[in-house]
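Hi R.,

Here's the chain you asked about this morning:
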Amino acid sequence: MKIIIMSAFGIVGLAIVALEDRAPPPPDFNALERQKKRLLYQGRAEAYQDVVDPITDPILLIRNAKVAMANPAAKNFLGNHIIGEDVRVAIRHPAAADRLANPNAEHTGEPILLVGVGSADQRWELRIHALDDGLKLVQLSDQSSRYAAERMRTDFVANASHELRTPLAAIKGFIETLENPEAGKDEDTRARFLTIMYREADRMQRLVEDLMSLSRIEAEKYQLPAEPVDLAKLVAEVRTVFLNGRSKNEDNFVISLPDNLPMIQGDHAQISQLLHNLVSNAIKYGRRGTPVSVAVKPNRNGSMLRLSVTDQGDGIAAEHIPRLTERFYRVDKGRSKSIGGTGLGLAIVKHITERHGGRMEVTSEQGVGTTVAIFLPVIKPQSGSITIPDVI
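And the predicted structure, written out as tokens:
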């Protein structure tokens, strides 16, 4: 009997030893405190989530030089992996890294320009705002379009100044030559110089007129024109002007106009200018003896008229086509100036088209020719109108 009791106590003792071996170690209070603080910080960062998620600019929250939170725009731009990542890895830019990783840096919200983040052409402004609990709010704002517009403005002023300065310098030089008594007495020299001076002055006048025209069109670009314009009649008028003014014969123009074309909604003077520019370009750059083709037809659903002007010239290389509507852009600068181009014709055409709610397409094949097509909206019939039949 005693032996049995002792065995039972032995079993209980062994069980107690086994339970002691399986018991968890004493808690690490320091680790628990760190976890508590981490959760508290995460909760603090996530408290901003609903506020920054709808913002279209990339927004980051930084703590201890690591990304604690990012809105969808930031994840799309920098990648989903940036959460928990070192900010110097997430935004690889020296100027940003110095400010973001430095715990003693003062943040006044002044922008930091970042070049090369995303792509080489993009320009970003980074602003840092200090929040509570050691958080830093980082905002990235894409300023590429503003910098591009500023660059275009600078280029435009430089190009316009150059285009005006060149003929002015020529006129001034010829005047100084004619002031010389010896040169001024030579009738042939004087006549030749005066012809060149007149041509240069005429070029300056056309350039100033085109600049003023472009300025007026841009000033009215948000005013949708509502005047009914008969495009078929306008094509016939422009054809007559060019035939009379340039000693052309009827074989130089091929006109394709279907019957009963609908009216377009536009500005008569501007559409006339658009058509004059397109036909003038086609005549200048088409090969001698080849006709200019002008065609008008409705698009598939009849909502627009397609006006196309085609030449049979040397054509344009594909890399030049996207830049043809830039101001002062020329495929062949020497040839364009020799035939009197200002470099603003297609820019004017583009702005007139945009003002009318239309679109412009350029197609070209080298050695064959170029077609510029303009799509312009037709006048829509008023809804709810009632047609009253004639009473007999």
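Residues 144-178 form the longest helix (35 residues).

Let me know if you need anything else.
M.
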